[in-house]
Amino acid sequence: MRSFFSTLLLLNWGLLLVLLLLAAGVIFVEDLIRPEFRPLIFFLYVLIAIFGTFYTSITIARKVTDPLSLVERKTKEINAGDFGVELSYPEIRELANLTISINEMARRLKNQFLDLTVEKEKFNSLLQNLKEGVFAIDGNRKFLFLNRNIPSSIISENSQFKDIQNSVKNRELLQFIETKIKKGLEGRSEFQEGNHYYNVRIYPIKSNEIIYLYIGVILDITEDRQNQLIREQFFQNASHELKTPITSIKGYAETLEYRLNLPENSNEKKFLDAILRNTDRMVRIVEDMLTISRLENHKTILQSQSFPIADLIQSVADSVGVIFSKKNQNLVFDVAPSLLVHADMVLMEHVLVNLITNASAYSPEGSIVMVKAEETFDRYRIQVIDQGIGISTADSERIFERFFRVDMNRSRKEGGTGLGLSIVKHIARLHSGEVFVSPNPKGGSIFTFEFPKK
Ligand code: ADP
Prior knowledge:
Blueprint: H1 4-29, H2 38-79, H3 93-128, E1 133-138, E2 143-146, H4 164-167, H5 171-183, E3 187-193, E4 196-207, E5 210-220, H6 222-260, H7 267-296, E6 304-308, H8 309-319, H9 321-326, E7 330-335, E8 340-344, H10 345-361, E9 368-375, E10 379-385, H11 408-413, H12 420-430, E11 434-439, E12 445-452
Parallel strand pairs: 7-9
Antiparallel strand pairs: 1-2, 1-5, 3-4, 4-5, 6-8, 9-10, 10-12, 11-12
The structure holds adenosine-5'-diphosphate.
């Protein structure tokens, strides 16, 4: 393999040699040629020189342009995704190096392309075999992708590259997706289609703060819903069934105590007192269970009205005053007397009693509990701030579950039922709001109850 430069030299020298040999031949035979033929010989010589030069130039040019046009064709094929056969090596070294590089590039691209195809296939089959329905929406509100687990009653089949407006059949789902896309937010919701209940989540995918994709996940939660209904039904039945016998035990125990008139430090009196104490606890538990059942079944229809929250806080403070003075604790307020909230007053009283008595129960003697109420432009916020034992991050979600206690013995000692915060959570939900706990920077906890203004 020669370099372009040496090929050029070689061909030129070759041509020169031929011309010199011809010239030498002509000079040698000049005397033998008749003078009238000499111009013809000279003309032939010039003709050979011209055609020789022409032929040499074409040969050189083709040695360069042929491989170059092959390279050009190959790069076009690669560009179109056709990696095909490798280029053969031309004679000129520089061009051969270029061909080697192009072949190598094609080989590498082909491997990368194959890897990507395999990865894409893996990803595709994973998505298609998920139990959840998955979809992706682009910036133009068109479906980029949908897996096969999305029922056609919710989103029409073959909706890929079609507008969401014409493809999403379930109105609730469409409204949810459109709101989230409009606000550019992630979100979660539930919707119903026929006899089935679904949970949907949507996430914006951002790059440099620009959203270019939304990923949605739909999960059929009908079975969970049914199980939840069975659990709620059981909870409701159990509380109803327990109420009558407990009330009757309490009644008989009180009658016995009254009739027997036992001496103060006798064992029988202690036993009867224990029965009465535990029956009272059971009565409280059953009452809380019934309250939860009522809230869960939406039997409690909100009786919303506008009232000064400061008055309600004051009245709750009066009713729990004994508890606070027993522990030498202070209850202070930070509430504007003019602040009116629009809510169910009876349920709000429940919330305040639960949060304030908890704040006292889980705080040391002599500590301060503050109740704060304020409004933002679209929400009401009520906070109960204590200086008590606090709640770990791990427990801060779980304390709102029914019967969950961080410390069972302490809760029992304080006469707790383990249901108070669960009731508060239900009331928050009924007001389309939420309740959560966060650590008090000065030690203790801050319970925040928030709900939107209507
Ligand atoms: P309980 O009747 O046991 O107080 P709740 O549902 O009201 O039931 O509270 C659940 C658990 O949350 C309590 O047992 C306690 O462990 C924890 N808790 C509630 N309020 C507070 C608080 N202010 N500080 C620390 N822990 C708390």
